[in-house]
Amino acid sequence: MTDDFSFMKLAIEEAKKAEAIKEVPIGALIVKDGVVVSSAYNLRETDQRAIAHAELLAIDNACKKLNTWRLTGCTLYVTLEPCPMCAGAIIQSRVDRVVFGATDPKAGCVGSIYNLLSEPKFNHRCEVEKGIMAEECGELLTNFFKQLREKKK
User: Fold this and answer.
1) What is residue 20's three-state secondary structure?
2) Is the pTM of this model over 0.90?
3) 109-145: pLDDT as tens digits
4) Residue 19: active-site member
5) Which of 85, 79, 99, 77 has its CA nearest to residue 15?
6) Is 35 left (phi over 0), alpha (psi -120 to 50) or beta?
């Protein structure tokens, strides 16, 4: 559990990198055998690509680094509950474990709206740990969107 907090702190640092460039502050890491293999943050606005979510970028980088599309033995740490697209990528890449911070009642597919990572009809399921540093992760998002709304006034 201590490792989960240490790695989530690193994911939060990634989220802060996104925030610094006016991206939605979401950060992600892929960890294997206690070592960070890949880290990423949202780049959807910067790249103008719908798929530039932190989780997808971290998964893609990890696959390249490990030279395999199967990320068995890996844990994905992410500051916000994955959306349906990211949950699908997690399943497809065979990530064994997902640890996330804040829940996403509008798009979360790891328990909030759906629970795709434990759906028995899929050929892969993940262990999930939710709510790690949820307050800190949620605060990043709340503050970001609050500032965004104030700028529009």
Assistant:
1) helix
2) yes
3) 999 999 999 999 999 999 999 999 999 999 999 999 9
4) no
5) 79
6) beta
Residue 58 tokens, joined? 């971290």
Strands 35-41 and 74-80: unpaired
30-48 exposure pattern, b = at least 16 Cβ within 10 A, e = fewer: bbbeeeebbbbbbbbeeee
CB 10 within 8 A of CB 31: no
pLDDT digits (tens, 9 = 90+) for 51-73: 999 999 999 999 999 999 999 99
Give dist(CA 25, CA 21) in Å, integer.
9
Q: Which two tokens stand for residue 86?
A: 């990211």
Dist CA 31 CA 129 (whole Å) = 14
Query: What per-residue confidence (pLDDT) applies to 151?
Result: 79
Select which of 55, 119, 127, 150 is catalytic.
55
> Strands 127-130, 97-102: parallel, antiparallel or unpaired by DSSP?
parallel
Reading the block at residue 50, the tokens are: 């719908």
| CA 49 to each of CA 24, 42, 52, 53, 57: distance values in angstroms, whole numbers, following the listed order | 14, 10, 6, 9, 11
